[in-house]
Design a protein that fits this description.
single chain; about 325 residues; alpha/beta; Rossmann fold; UDP-galactose 4-epimerase, domain 1; seven-stranded parallel β-sheet; two-stranded parallel sheet; 13 strands; about 15% strand; binds nicotinamide-adenine-dinucleotide
Length: about 325
C-alpha cells in the first residue's frame, strides 16, 4: 500500500525559523502549506502551497487548517530587545500573538488537526531567577510563580497554557518548546527587530577595521545562542516524540555579550573597540537548561557557538556587501 503523505501547516513560514522548518519538512517528504502575512525576505521556502494572509483573521485560519494533520505554529509579533523591551509594542504584541494562537487552536481543532507544535520562549522565565549573570536558572519547572520581564513573555506563557488546555479538554496533541535565542542565516538582521547575534554581525561587518562597535549595556549580561539547524532538529524530534513539553530548546554554552562580540570580530578578522551605551536589555543572565530534553528525547543541541556564528556572519556580511 502506498504510504500517505503527511499534510502539515507551518504558520509564520515567511519568517526565520518557519522558513527553515519548511525546507526540512519538504526534505522529509511532507506536503506543506505555508502561511504568513508577508513573503519571506531572503528565500522562497519550498512549500506546496503558500497563503499570504493574516492569521488574526478567522476565515483565513479556517482555510489554512483545512485538510491538515499537524500544525507548526511559529507566527508571532516578534523581535529582539529593541522591539520587545521598549514597552512601545506591548499592546500589539499581546493582541496579535494571542489572537493568532486562539484562532489556530480553535479552528485547527474543529477541522480535525491531530497535533500542534507551539513555539514558546525562554522569555517566559521569571526575572527573579535571572538577576545573577553567572547563575541564571531556567529549568522548565522554574517557570512559576510567573514573573516574565516582558509582555511578550506573558503572552507566550498564556499561550502555552492555552495549548495544554486544548489538549486536556479537546483531545488534541500538543508539543511545546521554549526556544532560547535562535540565530543563523535568513533571519532578520536590520530594521529594529533583529536580535543580538544578527545585530552584532551587521555592526561588525559594517565597521571599518580599527573602528568601533556599539553594545547595549555593560556587555557583561549573559545569554546562550542556538544555531538554526539544531533548533529545527529539536522541533522535529519533539514533534515526533511522546513527550508534550514544555521543554527548552537552546544551547548551554553561555557567553557574555562582550564575548559574543569578540567571537564575531575574530571570525570577521577585525579588531574593533567595544563602546558600551544605554539601550533596552532584558534579563541580566540567561542560559538554557538541557537536562529535561536530554532525559526525554535522548538528545541535546551540542554544536559549538563559534561554528554557527561563522555561518551567520558570512551570510550577514554578504547581505551588507550587496545592499
Ligand atoms: P520571525 O519574526 O522571523 O517569524 C515570525 C513570522 O510570523 C513572521 O514572518 C511574521 O510575518 C509572521 N506573522 C506575524 N504576525 C502574523 C499574522 N498576523 N499573520 C500571519 N503571519 C504573521 O520570528 P522567528 O525568529 O522565526 O520566530 C518564530 C517563533 O519562535 C515565534 O513564535 C517566536 O516568538 C518564537 N521564538 C523565537 C526565538 C528566536 O530566537 N528566534 C526565541 C524564542 C521564541
Amino acid at each position: 500500500m502506498e504510504a500517505t503523505v503527511k499534510r502539515v501547516l507551518v504558520n509564520g513560514a515567511g519568517g526565520f525559523i518557519g522558513g527553515h522548518l519548511v525546507k526540512r519538512l519538504k526534505a522529509e517528504g511532507c506536503w506543506v502549506r505555508a502561511v504568513d502575512i508577508k513573503r519571506h525576505e531572503f528565500t522562497q521556502p519550498p512549500a506546496d502551497e503558500f497563503i499570504q494572509g493574516d492569521l488574526r483573521n478567522p476565515e483565513l485560519v479556517q482555510a489554512a487548517v483545512s485538510g491538515i494533520a499537524e500544525v507548526y505554529q511559529l507566527a508571532a509579533d516578534m523581535g529582539g530587545a529593541g522591539y520587545i523591551f521598549t514597552g512601545e509594542h506591548d499592546a500589539v504584541v499581546m493582541h496579535n500573538s494571542s489572537t493568532i494562537n486562539l484562532n489556530t487552536l480553535e479552528f485547527g481543532t474543529r477541522s480535525g488537526v491531530k497535533r500542534f507544535f507551539y513555539s514558546s520562549s525562554a522569555c517566559i522565565y521569571p526575572e527573579y531567577n535571572q538577576l545573577d549573570p553567572d547563575n541564571p536558572k531556567c529549568s522548565e519547572d522554574s517557570a512559576y510563580p510567573a514573573a516574565p520581564d516582558s509582555e511578550y513573555g506573558w503572552e507566550k506563557l498564556f499561550s502555552e497554557r492555552l495549548y495544554f488546555a486544548y489538549m486536556r479538554n479537546r483531545g488534541v496533541e500538543v508539543r511545546v518548546a521554549r526556544f532560547h535565542n535562535i540565530f543563523g542565516p535568513e533571519g532578520t538582521w536590520q530594521g529594529g527587530r533583529e536580535k543580538a547575534p544578527a545585530a552584532l554581525c551587521r555592526k561588525i561587518a559594517e565597521a571599518p577595521d580599527g573602528g568601533e562597535v556599539e553594545i547595549w549595556g555593560d556587555g557583561k549580561q549573559t545569554r546562550s545562542f542556538l544555531y538554526i539547524d539544531e533548533c529545527v532538529e529539536g522541533v522535529r524530534r519533539l514533534m515526533d516524540s511522546e513527550f508534550t513539553g514544555p521543554v527548552n530548546i537552546g544551547s548551554e554554552e553561555m557567553v557574555t555579550i562582550d564575548r559574543l562580540a569578540e567571537l564575531i570580530m575574530e571570525i570577521a578578522g577585525k579588531k574593533l573597540t567595544i563602546r558600551h551605551m544605554p539601550g533596552p536589555l532584558g534579563v541580566r543572565g540567561r542560559n538554557s537548561d538541557n537536562r529535561l530534553i536530554a532525559e526525554k528525547l535522548g538528545w541535546t543541541p551540542s554544536r559549538p557557538l563559534r561554528e554557527g556564528l561563522e555561518k551567520a556572519y558570512r551570510w550577514i556580511e554578504e547581505q551588507v556587501r550587496t545592499l
